[in-house]
Amino acid sequence: MDSLLEIKNLHARVDGKPILKGLDLVIPTGEVHAIMGPNGSGKSTLAYVLTGRDGYEVTEGEVLYKGRDLLTLTPEQRAGEGMFLAFQYPVEIPGVPNTTFLKEALNAQRKYRGEDPLDAMEFVKLMRRKTKELGISDDLIKRQVNVGFSGGEKKRNEVLQMAILEPTLAVLDETDSGLDIDALKIVAEGVNALRAPDRSALIITHYQRLLEYIVPDRVHVLAHGRIARSGGKELAIELERTGYAAFAEAAA
Amino acid sequence: MPESASPTTAQSFVAQFGALRDTLPGAGLPWLRELREDGIARFAKLGLPGPKVEAWKYTRLRPLERIGFVPAGAAAQVDLDKLPALLPHTGVGHRVVFVNGRLRQCLALLADQPEGVELGGLADALRHDPDPLAAELGRNGNGARARDGQPLFALNTAMMQDGLVLRVRRGISVALPIEVIYVGAPGPEPVAFHPRNLIVLEPGARATVVEHHIGLGAGAYFANGGTDIRIEEGAQLHHYKIQDEGPEAIHIATTHVELARDALYDGFILSKGARLSRQEVAVQLAGEGSECHLNGAYMLRGEQHCDITTTIDHLAPRTSSREVFKGVIDDQARAVFQGRITVHRDAQQSNGHQLSKALLLSDRAEIDAKPELEIFADDVKCSHGATVGDLDRDALFYLRARGIPEAAARDILIEAFLAETINNIAAEGLCPALMSSIGHWLGGTTGRTEP
Amino acid sequence: MAASIETTQQVQEMGERTYKYGFVTEIETETAPKGLSEDIVRFISAKKEEPAWLLEWRLKAYRRWLEMPEPKWANVTFPPIDYQDSYYYSAPKTMDGPNSLDEIDPELLRTYEKLGIPLKEQEILAGVTGVAVDAVFDSVSVATTFKGKLEEQGVIFCPISEAIREHPELVRKYLGSVVPPGDNKHACLNSAVFTDGSFVYIPKGVRCPMELSTYFRINAANTGQFERTLLIADAGSYVSYLEGCTAPMRDENQLHAAVVELIALDDAEIKYSTVQNWYPGDKNGKGGIYNFVTKRGACRGRNSKISWTQVETGSAITWKYPSCILQGDNSVGEFYSVAITNNYQQADTGTKMIHIGKNTRSRIVSKGISAGHAQQTYRGLVKISAKAEGARNHTQCDSLLIGDRCGAHTVPYIESKNRSAIVEHEATTSKISEDQLFYCRQRGLSEEDAVALVVNGFCREVLQQLPMEFAVEAQKLVSISLEGSVG
Ligand SMILES: Nc1ncnc2c1ncn2[C@@H]1O[C@H](COP(=O)(O)OP(=O)(O)O)[C@@H](O)[C@H]1O
Ligand SMILES: [Mg+2]
Prior knowledge:
Strand content of chain B: 35-45%
Structural class of chain C: alpha/beta
Radius of gyration of chain B: 21 Å
Number of strands of chain B: 21
Number of strands of chain C: 23
Helix content of chain B: 10-25%
Number of helices of chain C: 12
Oligomer: heterotrimer
Shape of chain B: globular
Helix content of chain C: 10-25%
Shape of chain C: globular
Bound molecules: adenosine-5'-diphosphate, magnesium ion
């Protein structure tokens, strides 16, 4: 199978308001694509439609993942199939330790795939290895999920989860926003470490900066609910220079 | 002050009603007669509120029961030039004065009054144009809780003689506040009066009403007020009340507010006067998207008893309420705060927030607080908080370390504590009067400043 | 927390029957005639071979009870109870006071095994910490483990009927001293007809070497359970006490009206934990236990401390306010509560903290979860008397709603007469967050596991207070109780 994700003529509404209006996108297996676009153009909407969030209503079009219809699956089935979203705004879950959360998530996915659950020891070992690789402090994993985390810590935590869950398709929604250069490198390392012939990634970003560390195979511009332009990595550099004004006019 | 030989009982009011029944304004109107009869029957059944009624758990009417009251006649002589007004002359559109519950004066202070504002007294309205009142008076006092928990409102309904009637027509904005001064003027015998106010804002209308309750002299009187407020679609009422009754007064005020879609009620109460007072405000957020702010402050000393009881019913989706009450209690005074927020089943996506903060300034002061949440819809965000304590010791020390004497430091902190509730008031012209009211209270005698 | 996945498996295994303690033990019982009268009170007292003073005490309570009105203020509704339609005494026939564990009817042993309660000392000895258990089956205590080991330290842990015989001076001194018979109608009924329950005395300066635990089981049909627990911690002592309860699934409602009295003397500390899992009734609100319980502790001594922790998941109706009377200077009262109501359950629960001594402190943490058609009320009183210089209270009350047919209510009463006291109360009510659920599901958790995880997090502060052995059990219970509340 050559394309991991195939989006055809996707239309989606939020609260009755059309946001995606005929979006087409193909991500071949093993490739990293970037999506850029102005605020409010529907980037997060696309991420939520792909992961099956309530309230994001698909009115037309289809999405094939591993060649099968994605849209009929529940969010947890999609996760089990290897779909991972690094949230633009990670959610706080008071009272739940980060380690517990991750272990529950990992074992739920393993169970979905018919694998045995990791026991406590195996899990701790895995966790140690990943935090070390990413240079994330132990302290972060002992705390409650995202509770009281700074913006940067929340993003790091998303990357840690991604590293542990090892998704087939990782969608990163502005994971680079508001990060200093060190944190940015952690994000990039997390993605690059996962790069493999059988995995893909979709990087949603505003800035070309992250793409210096994660070099994308393709770059797409999302404007007014559709892919307005696609190109190689040089497109990102061009956008950085010209901004999105051209797309605003083009669609008006 | 002559204490009457026969103390007040529910029976004495029922008897007064019996004697007055046929001379009350609008006596010839069948609907009004029915309303009054229902009121007196309900009052007779419930009696004066006692400890068995949960809504009156913390407030006893002993000061009322000890004294006998006679119905206020029409005769009180008051020199209107000497009345303190809260707002400067230039900042007021209308000034209306009631003495012992009877309309004495209704002045338009500025020439260019907008059309579509009807302002006057209830007795007049019942005489000349009673029909529109039928649908308004008491329309929200009929829920089970009001019927069983508001005997004095029922009494007001039976006995009402006069009061403010304000109707603002569709789309009219009354830019300047309407100031209503209620004067309690005790005569040789303690008097009781039951003013009934009615405010209706038609769709899109806006108005600000400032109530100022004052007492002349130190005698006892019983002001048992009732107010019906209805705010139609998109209309906004700012309603500010300063209760500064005489030292032996008993002030009971029951207010029902009903809001239609996207309407706003912004209420504020400053309570500092009266021997015994109770402000009971019941708000029905009946229209989708309607909103209510209810704020207030109270300052008590001596043997004052002040009860603030509010109930907010969220009945429609996307309604919101915010409520902050703060008070300081000195000497042997006692404060009661009861606040209930109810979110009914259909009021999804509503939010209600309430905060009550009290400072006890003396060893014999007392506060009883009962904030309540009653939630029947799931998609809501509601909270309440209540704190009781003394002034923050660290802050006090900080000020004293800067050389400010303790008494002055305490005053500064108390003022700052109370000012927070005043700063949100939309009618800015009123803030200086409210702040000076606090300052004045702080300057008064109190056990607190004794060594 | 790892419990939630395991829990879901359990729930699935159970299929429709989510209440796993719903079985009935077939055992021959001796019952008093149906109904309530002075004769029944005398019958119970005679069965227990009680001294005359106690019979008098019971009869006085009974006569008082006849006059008392039912408490009406709680936010619960149920048809009037027919007190004559119930049995007030039921005991397994073979239980004529066995003093060795070997004499216990094997059917009973199997029952407790099924409930997960060890009645064999050696089994537990193999574990790290020991738990001594008093097992109360309908109206009588059927076994108390580890009595010998406890006696070495002077700790008395026995059925209250035994304490009345063996330690009458202690019982007479303290019984009814915290909850007087006339306190409320349910406590009054209990005073008249209480059958068994546990008695604990921790002598001066003794730190009780193991957790003490009572396990209550209602088995017989139409039988009320009226147990009475009396726990005295003498100066400088410490005890942690656990209590658990279950009952068979039956279509009629059964009454459980217990009284628990705790007394902490100078520097003593009592930690009292409850996992209440009486049968809650079925999905449509049929059957279930009426759990009308009066629990109160008196911090009589200086620096004493009483801490209540409760996990309330069972019962058709819960009416319960474990309270602390903080008499001793510097004494501390705590109340940690998780209450879960689902389907048609009703709970009106909370606490009273009565501050009397100087520098007394109290802390209240209440977490309520309401789902299905359930109605839940937190009702609490914090009272600072004029003499309670420097008293402090902090209350945090959070409610979570799952579904739009349930209700959550918060009714705190705060009364302060002391200027130096600081009272802080905070309460929130909201629905379980869609954002949190989606976040969990995106990571692969099923909706039900996500709810269990989020709710367990919400309750964490309270669950952490439980002794380890109970904490895991309680977490599972939280998940099971919410089964069927989503989707
Ligand atoms: N829950 C919502 N309800 C209504 N409109 C929404 C909601 N979420 C997003 N939108 C609107 O959808 C559009 C796309 O938003 P989003 O996908 O977040 O854009 P981006 O991530 O590209 O900034 C915006 O106009 C936004 O205001
Ligand atoms: Mg976005």
